[in-house]
Every structure is written in structure tokens, then in C-alpha cells.
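In the laboratory, one determines a bound structure by crystallizing the protein with its ligand and collecting diffraction data. In a computational setting the workflow is compressed into a single prediction: the sequence and the ligand go in, and a structural description comes out. We illustrate the idea with DQA.
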Amino acid sequence: MKLIIINGPNLNLLGKREPEIYGSETFKDIFKNLQNKFSTIELSYFQSNIEGEIIDTLHEVGFEYDGIILNAAAYTHTSVGIGDAVKGIETPVVEVHISNVHAREEFRHKSYISANAKGVIFGFGIKGYELAIQSFL
Ligand code: DQA
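The predicted complex, in C-alpha cell form:
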């Protein structure tokens, strides 16, 4: 099984950025743990702070991979382009948010992705990535 985790803007700062919300682990460590835990899965990772690069990656993997785990971060709430890309590809997308976006500011309640996602996981911290992988198994 081939899965990819795609992280959006500012998630390269995990471990340093607002640790009270996003935790103190770097994504490098989180990813290493996931690879160890799910060693039979071909798991890859892409992060970008650039909207178009996220769309390009969705196009690249979206007709080939078995699943996409997408935390589009702030673009979740603003990007019609990423939402359209999720709608246009064949690979199922599980939307993940580390924090409980519905317990935060109103602008975080809107998602351009959810309507076309296979499912949405939010509020379980970085454990959400693991839950998303499990959902594909
Ligand atoms: C986030 C929630 C978004 O609102 C925020 O902009 C992020 C991270 C999360 O994982 O909780 O950057 O997607």
C-alpha cells in the first residue's frame, strides 16, 4: 500500500511553533515513528508552504497512490484550488488537523477540503496522522 502525508504551510515548524497547540515533536521524528510503526506500508511525506506545490503534488500522486493524508493547514480555510484538486483526483484523501479546529477561531471552521474528503480527523494531536493511516488499512 502506497500512502503519502502532505503537510501545508508552517507545518515545517512543528516542534517549535505554538507547542501548546501543535506539540513539541518535529515532523521528522513523527514521520520516523510512523514509518517504524507501519513498516509494511510505503509511506512518503511532502511539505510545502506554497499552495501551487501542494496542488502539483496532489496531481502527481492522485491517480497512483492508494491514499493521501492531507493537512493543508491554513490553506484548508482559504484554498478553492486545493479543494478542487482533491475533488479532481481519484485517490481518496483523509483530511487531518492536529488541533480541534472547531474549538478555535471561526475562520478555522470552514474547510474547502472536507466535502470531497473520504473522512476528516481533527483534535487528536499528532496521533491524527496515525489514525488516518489506520483508516486506510
Ligand atoms: C491546522 C489547523 C489550521 O487552522 C492551522 O492554520 C494550521 C494547522 C492543524 O493541524 O491543527 O496551520 O491544520
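The chain has one domain: 2-136. Keep in mind that any predicted model is a hypothesis to be tested, not a measurement.
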